[in-house]
Amino acid sequence: MAAPDEDAYDVVVVGGGPAGEVVADRIVRSGLTAVVVEAEAVGGECSYRACVPSKALLRPGAARAEARSVDGARQAVTAALDPARVLARRDRFTGRGDDTGQADWLDGAGIALVRGHGRLAGERRVEVTAPDGTVRTLRARRAVVVCTGTEPALPPVEGLDRIGVWTNRQATTADAVPARLVVIGGGVVACEMATAWRSLGASATLLVRDRALLTGWEPCAGEEVTRGLSDLGVRIRFGVSAVRVARDETTRTVTVETDDGTALVCDEVLAAVGRRPRTADLGLETVGLPVRDWLPVDDTCRVTAGVDGDWLYAVGDVNRRAPLTHMAKYQARACAAAIVERAAGRPAVTGGRQRWSAEADRFAVPQAVFTRPEVASVGLTERAAREAGLAVRTVEYRIDDVAGAALHADDYRGLAKLVVDETRGVVVGCTLTGPMATELIHTATVAIVGEVPLERLWHAVPAFPTVSEVWLRLLEAYGL
Ligand SMILES: Cc1cc2nc3c(=O)[nH]c(=O)nc-3n(C[C@H](O)[C@H](O)[C@H](O)COP(=O)(O)OP(=O)(O)OC[C@H]3O[C@@H](n4cnc5c(N)ncnc54)[C@H](O)[C@@H]3O)c2cc1C
Ligand SMILES: NC(=O)c1ccc[n+]([C@@H]2O[C@H](COP(=O)([O-])OP(=O)(O)OC[C@H]3O[C@@H](n4cnc5c(N)ncnc54)[C@H](O)[C@@H]3O)[C@@H](O)[C@H]2O)c1
């Protein structure tokens, strides 16, 4: 029984981003009750300050470039982008942070919403501090699911905390195009946001600590994005780190000093150097867990580090397994299924591709990056496959040599790389660059998850003349 000052639900979800929304939805659909605790806006970082606004900022430049890549259409598209309209279109997707629509959706789905900052208060209890300071305790009969996501990490650069540095939040919500943008980082956010703001007229410089962009990907992905950004007029300085920044109070300009002894003047600095977990003020110490850390989980998203019982789960970015919205939602579906199984007295054993087992996190995470050219990947890189001890063979094919690609764009340029596990005769990794790479990658995801033998994939005939015909060419290059 709940104490008089407690509200009891089967599942208490802390954080109403993509992960939290989907956990709660699947729980309620199964007949159990769920409440979502949200400190800012229902929909999370993804809806208002990450995926959605960033893709809304990128799409107009991509559409323009696509039209201009076909002779006859090119001549019809001569003007630059209209920044005011692009920003207004972005705002139509984000509602400028107004979450009424998503809160109504929760209501319609039968999910309770409690606004405020959630904090664990011992086993199965979550204390919520509302914006007006009142505190309420929620009790979970079955499970507490932590879906609090991440916040931007900041590089150790002197003065960064005093210049009003941009993180993903400002980079996706700004109302004006900065004349000069300096981006620290060479990962996905840096590449996408430099593309977006450069397309809208900003001059952009990337300060990349490493010697390549998109490290961790197949090298061809970083190389193609480097070429694409350079063609767009983005300056990229490899092997360079910012050491000191300062904003001039009169001119409002920022001077960025770098470790090679040079200085750059700009209007805004975007820090895009990765993420850290939103676990600092989550009451983890009340259940014996270290504060500020990522939450390691098993394939059902049950927290593995020293918590007794089957009651604490962590889904989405906060568990660090695959920090992407689609994987957060996949984990959410698995986690909810596991909670429902266990509520029914069944153990929800993992492995064997059960609905409650988010095992694709480990071998089939698709990622789509909306730079120009687009790059997309799924599964293992060649290097990761070799490190895993697989008998690796790779196949590469230039997508521009496919008839459908040449018809699609006069200057089509793209590359496909497959990583094959020779022992099993199946694809374990795929990287694509070029127009529509982000759409084409799902075929590879199906091949990898389905463990389709190449001999059988041979019978999946791509239509002529599509870019997908690259699959036939890859299999021919493999020797079929
Ligand atoms: C610029 C950018 C672009 C991106 N683009 C893409 C993309 O195109 N595709 C893609 O798949 N991924 C993309 N991502 C990653 C994606 O945003 C995340 O993977 C996704 O948001 C993770 O969802 P989540 O629910 O785990 O966390 P979040 O979306 O961060 O949601 C967490 C929620 O929890 C709330 N919260 C936190 N702490 C508490 C608390 N103590 N109490 C109550 N509420 C709390 C927060 O307010 C927030 O609403 C992008 C990320 C960035 C930074
Ligand atoms: N299209 C998409 O799917 C998409 C788009 C944007 C972001 N995301 C997600 O958001 C996550 C975060 O993106 P991100 O770009 O911030 O992180 P990231 O991990 O992709 O890249 C971080 C970059 O910062 C560099 N770096 C790290 N510490 C540094 C330091 N101290 N000084 C200078 N450089 C440093 C790294 O070398 C790397 O180049 C990604 O992992 C991805 O999952 C996805």
Automatic annotation (TrEMBL):
Family under the similarity heading: Belongs to the class-I pyridine nucleotide-disulfide oxidoreductase family.
Domain Pyridine nucleotide-disulphide oxidoreductase dimerisation: start-end pairs: 365-471
Protein name, per record: Dihydrolipoyl dehydrogenase family protein
Pfam families: Pyr_redox_2, Pyr_redox_dim
Keyword set, alphabetical order: FAD, Flavoprotein, NAD, Oxidoreductase
Parts of the chain that traverse the membrane: none
InterPro entries, per database record: Class-I_Pyr_Nuc-Dis_Oxidored (IPR050151), FAD/NAD-bd_sf (IPR036188), FAD/NAD-binding_dom (IPR023753), FAD/NAD-linked_Rdtase_dimer_sf (IPR016156), Pyr_nuc-diS_OxRdtase (IPR001100), Pyr_nucl-diS_OxRdtase_dimer (IPR004099)
Domain FAD/NAD(P)-binding: start-end pairs: 9-332
Enzyme Commission number(s) from the entry: 1.-.-.-
NAD as UniProt keyword: yes
Cofactor(s) essential for the protein: FAD
Entry superkingdom: Bacteria
A molecular function (GO) term: oxidoreductase activity
